[in-house]
Specification:
Length: 240
């Protein structure tokens, strides 16, 4: 065999040894990417209810929003406004809105057994961080809002909401305010209570936890790809 052939054979069968510094860098980059993926928060979804698609002028709310994972129970009535061509009978004005929820034991105005009424909104899978809503409360409404987890433990509550009556004759609810409740843990229900027919709620918004934490967030994927790109660059640089 010629010397040139022998040299070629030896070089082609001898494995390329990666310096320890490159091995260390590769290990650190992969560890960084995996750590980032593990620390990225799970994605969250938002469930919003604006009550603009009610099937009637007044309907007691139960499972109408079960497609969103939301169920109502108690004295919750979805009502349409009688103003602005909304086609309903409820005496409220809310800019950009025709539908809302009225807290009422008897929406027709009949006798009630208790001056206080309440309704519960439950969300399948729970909700986290914060719940927000718009509300209109009459003077003396004595509103109390409570959040509970799956075991029935109280997570948060608020009272003493701003109240105001309408100056306009014939309009019951016209002063609307933004409300929100921040909390820790996973809540499964929110309870609204007040003097009967003194509270309206609109634009409910929940943040739900991700159904699964197994899918990496886009930030994790980008960081992992960046780490792998850096590793490829170091290998290419070494090969030069």
């Amino acid at each position: 065999m010629a010397l040139r052939d022998r040299l070629f054979t030896v070089r082609s069968t001898t494995p390329t040894r990666i310096p320890s510094t490159e091995n260390d860098m590769r290990t650190q980059l992969i560890a960084l990417a995996l750590t980032a993926a593990a620390l990225q928060p799970a994605a969250a979804d938002t469930v919003s209810l604006n009550f603009e698609n009610l099937s009637a002028a007044a309907v007691q709310l139960t499972t109408q929003f079960s497609g969103n994972g939301v169920v109502f129970s108690g004295d919750a009535w979805g009502v349409k406004s009688r103003y602005n061509g909304c086609g309903g009978n409820a005496s409220f004005l809310h800019t950009g809105s025709c539908g809302a929820v009225l807290l009422a034991d008897n929406v027709s105005g009949g006798p009630i057994s208790n001056p206080y009424s309440d309704f519960t909104v439950s969300l399948a899978g729970g909700f986290v961080n914060e719940v927000s809503f718009a509300y209109s409360a009459l003077s003396g409404a004595d509103v109390l809002i409570q959040l509970f987890d799956a075991t029935g433990s109280l997570l948060a509550q608020v009272g003493n909401l701003t109240t105001a009556n309408c100056a306009s004759t014939g309009v019951s609810f016209c002063n609307w305010f933004d409300g929100s409740i921040a909390f820790a843990g996973v809540a499964t229900s929110i309870v609204f209570s007040a003097i009967d027919q003194t509270l309206m709620i609109d634009d409910l918004k929940f943040t739900t936890p991700a159904a699964s934490g197994t899918v990496p967030e886009p930030g994790s994927i980008a960081l992992a790809l960046g780490a792998l790109g850096a590793l490829a660059w170091t290998r290419k640089r070494h090969s030069r």
